[in-house]
Amino acid sequence: MFTGIVQGTAPVVAIDEKSNFRTHVVKFPPELLPGLELGASVSNNGCCLTVTHIDGDLVSFDLMKETLRLTNLGEVKAGGLVNLERAAKFGDEIGGHLMSGHIVSTAEVVKILTSEHNRQIWFRLPTPDMMKYILHKGFIGIDGISLTVGEVTKSRFCVHLIPETLQRTTLGSRRLGDKVNIELDPQTQAIVDTVERVLQNREGAALVSGDRPASHHD
């Protein structure tokens, strides 16, 4: 599990590309190395990856076909930065919201509005069906960053970013057309899906009741 509080950005210094598979090597900042072991889970742009090799401050991760399909990690080139977060420990402060590191989709940056002290970024998801899980003032994970949703339309949503977030994460360098990783809030998903299922069951029961043939006593 992760908290969505990015602990640092780090460059991908090497990429070993294979068919539907790649290994990328990240140069870790010193403060994130203590206690890091093979098999540890680390969030890379919000995607939970497993440490496969450690050579000093160079840490390797394997990216499978599904990861490359669903996330923006397949588009990262050598020299590009990724947001990093080590897995949360029991007793850690949860400054954001609990996140699993399971990316459901990418979203495209479609509008950026910058003012003196903050930045508003608008995103568009590839399928409108996912918008039902994105609620005004709800939680969302964007490239591993726990953020509060701002305005929401039928096909787009935005977040408001303070200077600290812009400086400490890769969102400060995002441009129009860039793809970001999206993790939906599982509690919101569960509530929306449950309500939909209850309503469908009620509609189904009403139809069955209405179609029942009348008895001789009616």
Structure explained in plain terms:
With 218 residues, the protein is an alpha+beta fold. The chain has 2 domains: 8-86, Elongation Factor Tu (Ef-tu), domain 3 (Beta Barrel); 105-193, Elongation Factor Tu (Ef-tu), domain 3 (Beta Barrel). 17% of the residues lie in helices and 38% in strands. It has 3 helices and 12 strands; from the N terminus they run E-E-E-E-E-H-E-E-E-E-E-E-H-E-H. It has helices at 65-70, 163-168, 186-211, and strands at residues 8-18, 21-27, 41-44, 47-55, 58-63, 81-86, 105-114, 119-124, 139-142, 145-152, 156-161, 179-184. The strands form 2 sheets. Strands 1-2-5-4-3-6 form a 6-stranded antiparallel beta barrel. Strands 7-8-11-10-9-12 form a 6-stranded antiparallel β-barrel. Strand 7 and strand 8 (119-124) form a beta hairpin. It starts with 7 loop residues before the first strand and ends in a 7-residue tail after the last helix.
